[in-house]
Specification:
Helix content: under 10%
Radius of gyration: 19 Å
Structural class: mainly beta
Shape: globular
Order of helices and strands: HHEEEEEEEEEEEEEEEEEEEHEEE
Strand content: 35-45%
Number of strands: 22
Distance between the termini: 43 Å
Number of helices: 3
Largest sheet: 6 strands, mixed
Length: 325
């Protein structure tokens, strides 16, 4: 049983890589209709069931998966094997941001930009670097009023082999509290403090990584379901193109610890893909079967979907759950 770690700040020169404050137009922060066709509805069994789009849209809670690889051979800290992110966005991906009042496009090569789920208010963007480490967006009273406030991170990642500052690669918000995971698996809580600024207020006492260390690579997802935060790992032993196992954890928010989950609560179904993830009730979706399962696809799957049955711990291909209610 661990306690929350006290945060210790160290003197260290700022990160050399700088990036301008990033913003997202509030009018387009919700994904387009075509984007929603590529979420669980891209399952063959959902392809013609457009009335479920709104139900699924309201359940989106995570912004997708992060792929990480163990690189222990390059680790200078033998008791703390290092992780590398292996799916940095390519340079042709554009991030929309505000420059004065006008929207422009700009390429940010090798900078990891990830926004909290579409329905989060306020929104947070993490950068994957330490300066700035994250930014919060607030809308004003009048149209066009918007404020982006950026924050640097000057907290050394406890799992870094070279005493680097934390660099966040995954984030989720719940009731105006944000939970961010660093590249090395540190968990940080970001909250609004008395000064009116968002700050890192606590760190988890254990590393956010899979239990199974046999796998060389894994995909990491954050999602919320019925008030609980979950972390799901898709594990690959040899090739990242093949998922060999799935692990599901629930975050104990009071102790900032992950607890292994053997069964999903109620008739829950989880859906995971590269650009978003969600948990939803099978009955709400209109399915009499398929609960207690994790459905997933990824960029190496060639459009195929798979299902991990929590009861049998087996993975199989699937057209998706059948809507029959």
């Amino acid at each position: 049983m661990g306690e929350k770690k006290m945060i210790k700040k160290e003197r260290k020169s700022p990160s050399k890589k700088k990036v301008e404050p990033v913003a997202v137009d509030p009018l387009i922060s919700r994904r387009s209709w075509s984007d929603y066709k590529s979420m669980p509805i891209s399952c063959p069994s959902f392809s013609s069931n457009f009335e479920k789009h709104y139900t699924i849209e309201k359940s989106i809670s995570g912004s997708g998966g992060i792929t990480k690889s163990w690189i222990s051979s390059r680790c200078t800290h033998p008791t703390c094997p290092q992780l590398a992110e292996t799916n940095i966005y390519p340079k042709y991906i554009h991030i929309r941001y505000w420059e004065h009042v006008h929207r422009v496009f700009r390429d940010l090569d090798n900078i990891h930009l990830r926004m909290s789920a579409p329905l989060d208010r306020p929104k947070v963007v993490i950068t994957g670097i330490s300066s700035p480490a994250f930014a919060f967006y607030r809308t004003g009273i009048h149209y066009g009023d918007c404020v982006w406030r950026t924050r640097d991170c000057r907290i050394i990642d406890p799992y870094s082999g070279n005493n680097s500052f934390m660099e966040f690669t995954n984030v989720i918000g719940f009731q105006r509290t944000y939970y961010a995971i660093s590249r090395q698996g540190s968990l940080a809580v970001i909250e609004l403090v008395d000064s009116g600024k968002y700050e890192i207020t606590a760190l988890g006492s254990r590393r956010v990584v899979p239990n199974c260390r046999v796998s060389k690579q894994f995909r990491e997802y954050l999602l919320e379901y019925e008030g609980e935060i979950y972390v799901v790992f898709l594990l690959s032993r040899v090739s990242i193109e093949v998922v060999d196992n799935v692990e599901v954890f629930r975050l104990d928010k009071s102790r900032l610890l992950l607890e292994k989950v053997d069964r999903l609560v109620g008739d829950a179904m989880f859906f995971l893909q590269d650009n978003l993830c969600l948990g939803i009730s099978a009955s709400l979706l209109g399915c009499s079967k398929g609960s207690d399962c994790v459905y997933f696809t990824h960029d190496k799957a060639g459009g195929a979907w798979f299902v991990f049955d929590m009861k049998s711990c087996c993975i199989s291909t699937t057209p998706g759950p059948e809507i029959d209610l």
